[in-house]
Specification:
alpha+beta, Nuclear Transport Factor 2, Chain: A, globular
């Protein structure tokens, strides 16, 4: 009986000590706030692409951006902005849905679906996509470092 009592007391003390030393988790409210912030940045970025707002895009896109179009073409920040500036690439409209942002410290992964209406060169294109992009926090603000989109087969 005495051994059982000592065991119970030891277990209670050990679990109390473990709880006191456990790292505190990031509050869910803060994570949700940052996820909403990233989703808003996505909305601003899409609007800037449609409106050819190069100043906003310059701020939102990282200098080391890797932008992979649904065609497989890969742009850097410089080549992507140059194509928009010249009119070689024109986003007529972008309708998005099911956008989810997941934050991992100073990184965030965004996934979603979209309907793109684009003019590329002399081609008018309209197609649905699934996309994934990545943001990182640099110098106290979020920038997009990677974009990858895949066309969804139309039935």
């Amino acid at each position: 009986m005495r051994h059982a009592f000592v065991f119970v007391i030891s277990t209670v003390l050990a679990s109390s000590a473990a709880r006191a030393q456990a790292p505190r988790k990031t509050p869910g409210g803060e994570r949700a706030r940052v996820e909403r912030e990233i989703q808003k940045l996505e909305e601003h970025r899409f609007q800037a692409m449609i409106g050819v707002d190069l100043k906003t895009l310059d701020r939102l896109l990282a200098d080391d951006l890797s932008y992979t179009h649904s065609s497989g073409k890969v742009d850097t920040k410089a080549t992507f902005l140059a194509a928009l500036r010249s009119g070689e690439l024109k986003y007529e409209s972008i309708r998005t849905e099911d956008i989810k942002a997941r934050v991992y410290g100073n990184s965030a992964v965004v996934t979603g679906r979209g309907e793109m209406k684009v003019r590329s060169g002399n081609q008018e294109l309209s197609f649905p996509i699934r996309f994934t992009d990545v943001y990182v926090k640099r110098d106290s603000h979020w920038v997009m470092v990677a974009w990858q989109s895949t066309r969804i087969a139309q039935q």
